[in-house]
Design a protein that fits this description.
The chain has 278 residues and is α/β, with parallel strands linked by helices. Helix content is 44%, strand content 16%.
Length: 278
C-alpha cells in the first residue's frame, strides 16, 4: 500500500491516480469513512484529465490506528504531509463534512502559506462550528454529539448501520429510494477504522471553531450544501461559512441530503468541474 509517514510517525494511506503533470485534485473524506467514499468523484475527474489524490485520515480506513492526534490540527498536518510527499502544486482541495473542516484548516494553515492550494470546495461541511454555544445559538446541542459518542462506544456496528440507512443519505425520508449497497459500503468503510479515532473525532468535528480558518482563506472557495441535510444542518454551516469567506461562492441544493456526493453525483460532479475550470 502507498503510505506517507508524518512527523509524529503516523502512516497515512493514500491513492494517487492519473497523469503526474495534470492539475491535482485532493479529496478529504468525512467521519467515519475513508478515501473510498470518493469513488464517484475520483473516477469522474480522472476521466476528465485530472490527477486525483485521496487519503485515509489517521485512524480511518487503511491508515495507522494510532491513539492520539484525532483533531483538526493533526488532520490538516497529515494532509500537508501527503501534499509535500507527492509535491502537489496548484491543487484543488475538496472536503466533505468533517473533511470540509480539514480542508478549511489545511488551506488556512498550510495550503495558502505554502502556495500549493489553488481552490477549495466545502461540501456539506462542518465549519464554522456545529456545537450550540452562547455565541452560536443555531448549533446542535451537546446531547446530539453525546448520543454519537454513546453509540460509537456502545455498539458502533449498529450505530453506523442506522446512520447510513437513515439520515446520512436521506433514506429515512418518505418516498426515498434506498440503496442497500450504499448503506453496506458506508458501514464497511466505517468499520475498517478505529473506534478510538471515531470516538475522538466526534469532538473534532463538533467542537472545533473554524471561524478564523474561514476568514483567513483567500483562494476561490465553493460551498455546496443540501437544504435537507440532517447531519450538518445548512443554517449553521454553509449559510454562515459563506459570510466568513473572502472569495466564496454558495450553491444550495433543494432537498439534497448530507451524502449528496453519492446520491446525486450526476449533478454534483459537473458543478464541481465547472468551478474548477472557471
Amino acid at each position: 500500500m502507498a503510505t506517507v509517514t508524518t512527523k509524529d510517525g503516523t502512516e497515512i494511506f493514500y491513492k494517487d491516480w492519473g497523469p503526474k503533470d495534470a492539475q491535482p485534485i485532493m479529496f478529504h473524506h468525512g467521519w467515519p469513512l475513508s478515501s473510498d467514499d470518493w469513488d464517484a468523484q475520483m473516477l469522474f475527474f480522472l476521466q476528465n484529465g485530472f490527477r486525483v489524490v485521496a487519503h485515509d485520515r489517521r485512524g480511518h480506513g487503511r491508515s495507522a490506528q494510532v491513539s492520539d492526534g484525532h483533531d483538526m490540527d493533526h488532520y490538516a498536518a497529515d494532509a500537508f504531509a501527503v501534499v509535500e510527499a507527492l509535491d502537489l502544486r496548484r491543487a484543488v482541495h475538496i472536503g466533505h463534512s468533517t473533511g470540509g473542516g480539514e480542508v478549511a484548516r489545511y488551506v488556512a494553515r498550510h495550503g495558502e502559506p505554502s502556495g500549493r492550494a489553488a481552490k477549495a470546495v466545502l461540501v456539506s461541511a462542518v465549519p464554522p462550528l456545529m456545537l450550540k454555544t452562547d455565541a452560536n445559538p443555531e448549533g446542535l446541542p451537546m446531547d446530539v454529539f453525546d448520543g454519537f459518542r454513546q453509540g460509537t462506544a456502545g455498539n458502533r456496528a449498529q450505530t453506523f448501520l442506522d446512520v447510513a440507512a437513515g439520515p446520512f443519505y436521506g433514506f429515512n425520508r418518505e418516498g426515498a429510494t434506498v440503496h442497500p449497497g450504499v448503506v453496506q459500503n458506508w458501514w464497511r468503510q466505517g468499520m475498517m477504522g478505529s473506534a478510538k479515532a471515531h470516538y475522538d473525532g466526534i469532538r473534532a468535528f463538533s467542537e472545533t471553531d473554524q471561524t478564523e480558518d474561514l476568514k483567513a482563506i483567500t483562494i476561490p472557495t465553493l460551498v455546496m450544501h443540501g437544504d435537507d441535510d440532517q447531519i450538518v444542518p445548512i443554517a449553521d454551516a454553509a449559510l454562515k461559512s459563506i459570510k466568513l469567506l473572502r472569495n466564496g461562492t454558495l450553491k444550495v441544493y433543494a432537498g439534497y441530503p448530507h451524502g449528496m456526493l453519492t446520491t446525486h453525483a450526476d449533478v454534483i460532479n459537473p458543478d464541481l468541474l465547472a468551478f474548477i475550470k472557471a
